Description:
The chain has 292 residues and is mainly beta. It has helices spanning 4-16, 122-127, and strands at residues 30-35, 43-50, 53-58, 65-70, 76-82, 92-95, 99-104, 115-121, 130-131, 134-139, 155-162, 165-171, 178-184, 188-191, 193-198, 203-210, 216-225, 228-237, 248-256, 260-265, 270-275, 284-289.
Amino acid sequence: xxxxxxxxxxxxxxxxxxxxxxxxxxxxxxxxxxxxxxxxxxxxxxxxxxxxxxxxxxxxxxxxxxxxxxxxxxxxxxxxxxxxxxxxxxxxxxxxxxxxxxxxxxxxxxxxxxxxxxxxxxxxxxxxxxxxxxxxxxxxxxxxxxxxxxxxxxxxxxxxxxxxxxxxxxxxxxxxxxxxxxxxxxxxxxxxxxxxxxxxxxxxxxxxxxxxxxxxxxxxxxxxxxxxxxxxxxxxxxxxxxxxxxxxxxxxxxxxxxxxxxxxxxxxxxxxxxxxxxxxxxxxxxxxxxxx
Length: 292
C-alpha cells in the first residue's frame, strides 16, 4: 500500500503545476503584409530580388520556376523558368552577390538519393524569363537507410550561403533537432560534411544569415501539437566562423496555427516570413521583429 503522505504530496505538487497550454504562450507580434496569389500556395523559399521585390518558389510537384513578387503587395511581377531541371521538392533559397541557390532537397520520407542544389546567375534571373542552372549533387555522410519511414533525420528545408560554401540545417523528424552540413558552392557531386548539431526542439523549415558585428543566424521552424502547428524562431548571435551555435541562442515563439516555411532578414532586427496555404486559406507574407 503506498505511503499516504507521499501520495498527498504528489497530488499537491501536480495541482500546483502551472498550465503550459498554447494559450499561455507569448508570441512575437506579426505584421501581416499581404496574402499571396492563389498560384503561390506552397512558398518554401525567399530571397532578395530588387529593393522592392523578392524571389519565391513553390515546393514539390510544382513548376521549376522562381517568382518575383512585390515586397509589400505580394503580387507576382514576373516568372523565371529554370529550363534544365525539375521541381522534385524545392524547399529553400540561399543567395550571395552573384548567385541564387535553389535547394531541391526536400526528403519527407527519407528515401531520396537525388538530393540537389541548383545554382543560377542572379543577373540572368533578373534579366531573363528562362535560365539554366548549374547542379550540385550531394548525399549525407550519416544516412545509410532509405526505407520509407516517418521518423528520420535526412530531411532538409534550410540553407545559407557564406563565402565559398553552402550550409544545410536538417529537419530532423526523429529527434526534433538540426544537423549542420557544409558543401562547396560549385557544381559537382559531394558527400556533405557534418559540422554541427543543435537541439532546436522542433522541425526547422528555413534559415537566413546576416553577416556583421554579431554574425546572426535565424532558424525558423514549427512544432506539431495535435493537428495544429506552433511556429518558433531561433536567433543565434555572436557567431565565430562556422561555429553557428557557439555564441548566444534565443528562442522566440512566432505564431500558432501557422506553417511557416521561408525566412529572410529585412533588417538587423526584423525578418520577412511566409507560410503555406493551410485548410483552404491563402498563403501569406508577414514581417516579424525580434529586437537587437
